Amino acid sequence: MRYVAGLDGGGTKTAVTVADEKGVAVHAFTSGAINYNGQDEASIRGSLREIFETIAKVCGGLDRCAQVCIGAAGVSNPTVITRLEASVRACGYQGGLFITGDQETALCGAHDSEYGIILIAGTGSICYGKNESGRSHRTGGCGHLIDDEGSGYSIGRELISALVRAHDRRIPATAITGMVYEQLQLESVQQIIGFVYDKRTNKKDIAALAPILSHACALGDEAALSIAKKSACSLFELVVPVVEKLSLQAGTLAMAGSVLLNNTYVQTAFADMLIQRYPDLKCITAKKDASHGAVLMALAKLAARS
User: Fold this and answer.
1) What gap in Å lies between CA 69 and CA 102, rounded to an integer?
2) What single DSSP character describes residue 1?
3) How far apart, in whole angstroms, are the C-alpha atoms of residue 104 and residue 39?
4) Could you read off the pLDDT tens digit of each residue along the chain, which spans 306 residues?
5) Phi, psi of 275 (to 5 degrees)
6) How far is residue 182's CA from residue 18's CA, in Å, rounded to a whole number?
7) Beta-strand (E) ranges in the chain?
8) Helix, strand, or coil here: 29?
9) CA-to-CA dists, residue 208 to 3, 11, 252, 262, 279, angstroms
10) Of 18, 108, 187, 233, whose CB count within 10 A is highest?
């Protein structure tokens, strides 16, 4: 029996699914992030070593894993695929290897097909679509320093910004303030500033604040509701160019990522905008996760080689 492995290298973790050559999943696990735009080289190599050690145990040796597909954030950077491949080979894996953007594996998992639209709002944000003519288009996904609007990172930053502005009385007092202080175990704006600009603080630490938005919205907090609406608008902006360029006004869009799946305020506001603009565009939640999509792509690559 041969095996395949699918890796979903997201912004904060890597989800891995190992399946046999018939497509039956035999093991799933998570490890550290492998995004070169957010992690250092040593951390990525450590995560990959852990991943391939586990794959070897599951398969009874790396030589029995015939194909690996990695869907990774950050592969639009021209050097990333080369560096990622070198790191994988350094783990001792010599089988088939296909590296692509995590939006492609997410699309495949979400629709059980390579066609349709996927909107991901997790730590980062991106929209990707592919029509049956084979044309594809992507928006967003350019990283938290210049993009990722509507994402968990963006929401976390907006929450901290609301705290600071409320402290200055630029906006009315907000429930967000106490919630952020409590989660971070801090007591002052000075400490917040120290946390944000500490070199040890990374984007996932900021994104970890995002669930606060749901709690504050449930209280009817004006600042929170404003952030939710702004996030929904930003996500809708990602979708429009993909729909228009690929003529998928009557297609299917799958929502994925913690923001869209866990924050009902953002999801509802986004869905309302979508149905008003594209009443024939069906909106669904992803059928399977991106690691399963990577497995499907790995199986296709394996079949093409056979």
Assistant:
1) 10
2) -
3) 21
4) 899 999 998 767 899 999 999 999 999 999 998 887 667 888 999 999 999 999 999 999 999 999 999 998 778 777 889 999 999 999 999 999 999 988 899 999 999 998 999 999 988 899 999 999 999 999 998 888 999 999 999 999 999 999 999 999 999 999 999 999 999 999 999 999 999 999 999 888 999 999 999 999 999 999 999 999 999 999 999 999 999 999 999 999 999 989 999 999 999 999 999 999 999 999 999 889 999 999 999 999 999 987
5) -70, -30
6) 39
7) 3-9, 14-20, 25-31, 65-72, 96-101, 116-121, 125-130, 136-140, 252-256, 282-285
8) strand
9) 35, 12, 30, 13, 34
10) 108
Q: What is the model's pTM? A: 0.85
Report how far residue 223's alpha carbon sits from residue 294's, in angstroms, rounded to the nearest whole number: 39
Alpha carbon distance 158, 146 (integer Å)? 15
Q: Which two tokens stand for residue 79?
A: 């050097």
Q: Which DSSP state fits 209?
A: T
For the chain, the distance separating the N- and C-terminal CA atoms, rounded to the nearest angstrom, is: 14
Q: Which structure tokens are listed for 112? A: 């059980």
